[in-house]
Specification:
It comes from Brevundimonas vancanneytii. The chain has about 300 residues and is an alpha/beta fold. The protein contains eleven helices and eight strands. It has two domains: about 240 residues, Rossmann fold; about 50 residues, no CATH class. About 40% of the residues lie in helices and about 15% in strands. The relative contact order is 0.11.
């Protein structure tokens, strides 16, 4: 068991009925957190048939504290309802883990706008609804831990995942922005980019990969990012099979160019090592220096 202690903390986990979300909810509860377990109720399901109820009951059976929330994250008030459930049931809120997402696997020419809207409504706006509801509370108490879920499809693009990838790119950008805005109020926001067996990936993973890349291998990272021990902010961490790596945007040093030199210039830039920046302001100020101009603020 990890050394992370979440005793006395309260978390919301969306998409927590199955797969990664369920593993996160169980993992946070095992480390002492009370958990609001969110997963939407499907048509015709009784309370006892819902995956959210199943996860919440599993937590209670193990001696933990949990309450099920059956709302769809697509609903505009879904975040407010989950925050209210946390406060009414447990008296506080410290952690939000935005995990809910909608699958998509079709070429851009075969993906209609309704599918795009659905994927964005769940993956991005569902995340936004929760974070926007929790944000004022975190600011008021001067503490909060935000863990969002992104994907390599959002950073690199992936054939057949135009809607899903774009929604994850939006989540990643929102996470970095909230990290910048929340730091002064004790709010840390980071994103997890998981590689793990789930309903979305089971059709793509070889059996040997699936055996090693189980959801429980991602849980220790999510637990640490959710804790007061967390020391990073605004980062994207790739997790899979018990291995972890940092991911993020990079920019190469700039070069002068014109229409006649772009082919050679782009070839050169493709092999030039890039660097990351702490903010968009730092990225622009670095370009000013490379152009022989004074930066707007001193560079680190």
């Amino acid at each position: 068991m990890s050394g992370v202690d979440l005793s006395g903390r309260v978390a919301i986990v969306t998409g927590a009925g199955k797969g990664l979300g369920r593993a996160y909810a169980l993992g946070l509860a095992a480390r002492g957190a009370a958990v609001v377990v969110n997963n939407r109720r499907h048509a015709g399901e009784s309370t006892e048939e819902t995956s959210a109820w199943s996860t919440a009951e599993a937590i209670k059976a193990a001696g933990g504290r949990a309450v099920a929330n059956f709302g769809s994250v697509e609903a505009e008030d879904s975040g407010l309802v989950m925050v209210r459930d946390a406060l009414d049931t447990f008296g506080r809120l410290d952690i939000v883990v935005a995990n809910a997402a909608a699958p998509q696997a079709a070429g851009f020419n075969k993906t209609d706008l309704a599918t795009f809207r659905h994927v964005f409504n769940v993956g991005f706006l569902g995340t936004l609804n929760l974070l926007h509801a929790a944000w004022p509370l975190f600011r008021e108490v001067g503490y909060g831990r935000i863990v969002t879920t992104t994907s390599s499809a959002g950073r690199f693009g992936q054939h057949g995942l135009s809607a899903y990838g774009a929604s994850k790119a939006a989540v990643e950008s929102l996470t970095r922005t909230l990290a910048a805005e929340g730091a002064r109020n004790g709010i840390l926001a980071n994103a997890v980019s998981p590689y793990a067996l789930s309903q979305m990936t089971e059709g793509y993973m070889r059996s040997d990969v699936a055996e090693r890349f189980t959801p429980d291998k991602v849980v220790p990272l999510v637990a640490w990012l959710s804790s007061q021990d967390c020391t990073i902010n605004g980062e994207v961490i790739v997790a899979g099979g018990g291995r972890f790596r940092r991911a993020g945007p990079v920019e190469t040093p700039s070069r002068e160019g014109d229409e006649g030199s772009f082919a050679a210039l782009m070839s050169d830039l493709a092999t030039t090592p890039g660097r990351s920046f702490s903010s968009s302001n730092q990225a622009f100020d670095t370009l000013l220096v490379e152009a022989g101009l004074e930066p707007r603020a001193p560079l680190d």
